[in-house]
Predict the structure of MFS transporter.
Amino acid sequence: MNETQFKFPHWRQNIYLFLTSQFLTGITSMVVQYAIIWYLTKETGSATILSMATLLGMLPMVLLSPFVGPVVDRWPKKLLLIVPDIVAALFAILLSIAGTLADQFPLWLVFVSLTVRSIAQTFQMPTVQSIVPTMVPESQITRINGQLGMVQSANMLIAPALGAFLFTIIPINFLILIDVLGAIIGITLLIFVRIPKVSTTGETVHVLTDVKFGFKKLIGNKGLWYMTLIGTAFTLIFMPAASLYPLMTMNYFHGTVGQAGLVEVIYSAGMLAGGTVIGLFGNWRDRMRPIFFAYLTIGITIGLSGFLPGNQKSFIWFVILNLIAGFGTPFFSTLLMAMIQQSYPPEQLGRVLGVLNSLMSISGPVGLIFVGPLADKIGVAAIFVIAGVGTLICGLVTFLIPQTRRYDQTLQQQLSKQTADLD
């Protein structure tokens, strides 16, 4: 389908308004997220507390995603984006009030707030993923996903620096209210975005039947099914290290909150550069090759980070390695999502994504349960070495399996045949 045949003649303006709304709600939400994590790091200095906070942030994705998928396919997409933002903003207000009335935030309320924010994201992430292919011509899906990745990377680039700066000058109980401002602006813009209805919108949700349908569709696609299993292993290995970044900077390298923010900024700058390359030159004939590049880049850089001595001189190398790791990250996440979106019709995508997101996230909490005590025992740096080696193994397994190595070549042939049949 080319641009002139696409049902929305002004689709570019529409999708860019949508991306702008996602940028504004995303950046304010991430500023608050970083502020909460840094607060926990500064107040407790505990790997167990940090891993528990990350665990609570992941559990809703694991437990609810299969059941959210059918809702995404059948409920109005705009409603699924707006309501979670409102709920998250209300909890931000509640947490702010509690922090104002007391000297410290009640730890249980911080954990509840992180859980609610994760539930909101559990609804929003598959909704955004399922919306994109309906808003743009098929030929532009990879590039628009790259630009969506650029928006997310820009959020991750700006939010840590902005968060670290605001964390030092604004009390945390007032800083949290920035999330409310972002929600108001983002929702206002989203009201003017035109989101197409799919054929299943308005149908009754049959949760168990729909979950079974999504699982059947996913497992029937052998190449994607194998990539999901490998991605599950990757999450088990990598997520524990990702949750310990603030502790790596502030305890292992003896850094500050500002330096913890700098690492996040640099990683995100790399992601932005990688997303820019995808957004400009994203129509590769075989998108699995850049995915192999991502596994290799992330594995080597994260693994090497764990071998650095724990001093400020080595922190500079830590920053450089994370810039390279950030550059490689979008080549995995963005290109894989584009292939998934092209593998299923829009009316099935939410159900498939619900199952897929849950399976690829399910191992994260398992790793996080053990990583806190393990890191306290063997050291944070050792966790990074394990994550790096495990990532390289996941990439090697993906390459060795023919169905995953050739997945995009097969998909491109199928899409070309479908286009030829329509013509």
Notes: The chain has a mean pLDDT of 81. The chain has one domain: 11-194+204-422. Residues 11-194+204-422 form a domain with the Growth Hormone; Chain: A; fold (CATH 1.20.1250.20).
